[in-house]
Write a structure and sequence with these properties.
The strands form two sheets. A five-stranded mixed β-sheet has the order 4-2-3-5-8. The termini are far apart. It has a single domain, classed as YbaK protein (Alpha-Beta Complex). The protein is built from seven helices and eight strands, in the order αβααββαβααβββαβ. The protein is 30% helix and 26% strand.
């Protein structure tokens, strides 16, 4: 009798379930920027994924109130300009949110923040770097360190009511 090899079933993240509920097509990818850095970008490029289409999610704190949080998504290798973001949004100041408090602020640990769950669960405004407009597909965290989802940019922007912003 021939035995069938069982395929290991990967448990979906809550953020993948959100995409499923909204009938958004995506594919799961493994991408460990935190551990592998530049090597992870090289691996992505080798798989045909433009490195500038892989986004990091940064949680920021505005100066308007104690609950004035917002999220920016930009390519991994780019830096943000806090003064420019504050100016673009008409805020006096913008700061990085406290990394030690990210879990209580967003529900995610550092390296796992994603615009999907943060917007759906917390309602924080989501902004995307204007420099990603040319990519039909983008990758964002799936809510777990080292795990991403690749999906159509238009689908993600619609889901999270995202807006474009000059971030760099």
């Amino acid at each position: 009798m021939k035995e069938m090899a069982k395929k290991a079933k990967v448990k979906k993240t809550n953020d993948e379930r959100i995409l499923d509920q909204h009938q958004i097509t995506y594919r799961e990818t493994r991408f460990d920027w935190v551990t592998n850095g530049e090597q992870a970008l090289t691996e992505a490029e080798a798989e045909g994924i433009p490195s500038k289409s892989i986004l990091k999610t940064i949680v920021l704190k505005g100066s308007d109130s104690s609950q004035d949080y917002l999220v920016v998504c930009l390519p991994l290798e780019y830096e943000i300009n806090l003064k420019r973001i504050a100016n673009e949004l008409g805020k006096k100041q913008i700061h990085l949110a406290d990394n030690k408090k990210l879990l209580s602020i967003t529900g995610y640990v550092h390296g796992a923040n994603t615009p999907i769950g943060i917007n759906v669960r917390k309602g924080f405004p989501i902004y995307f770097d204007v420099r990603i407009k040319s990519f039909e597909e983008i990758s964002v965290s799936a809510g777990k360190v080292g795990r991403s989802v690749r999906l159509k940019q238009a689908d993600l922007l619609k889901l999270v009511q995202g807006k474009y912003l000059e971030i760099g």
